[in-house]
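Predict structure. Chain length: 171.
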Amino acid sequence: MDKVKLPEVWLRGPLNDVPVLLQPVAHALLQAREELNELMAYFPDLLLWNKVAGMASPGFHLQHLTGVLDRLFTYARGVGLSDDQLAYLAAEGKPAETISAVTLVEQFNLQVDKAVKQLANTNQSTLADVRGVGRAQVPSTVTGLYVHAAEHTMRHLGQLLVTVKVLKLGV
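Prediction complete.
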């Protein structure tokens, strides 16, 4: 039986509890999650750390997608990164046989859930508030961090899509 194709997330209506100004960010993250889950279904762990034309591996993209969301949403709360977050950043893209594609996808799904929950709990009056990014505390805003998280997620999803499709051709 054919699977019913739903419209893109942004065409399914507003999300309950997410402030209107943050709907596009939530829609983009939920769309990325759907596409990533479909793309990575049955992806062989054997190919997880393979690169195409010297570009980043699927394993890196999956780790980075999760890590960036975590870091940018942490900055949006006005909090610095924890030692665990810095350790995660340092480990992004380093092959490990104990890491599976399924686990990385699950971690991304959980991070999207956390991000959407944070969006739902964000007071719209804080969206223009300045937030420091990184050790240098480069100034951004809550809105800037959320929008960048969404566009960065979609950018890496696009790179992951091409890499996975090329790698699957070789199987």
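Summary: Residues 66 and 108 are 5 Å apart (CA to CA).
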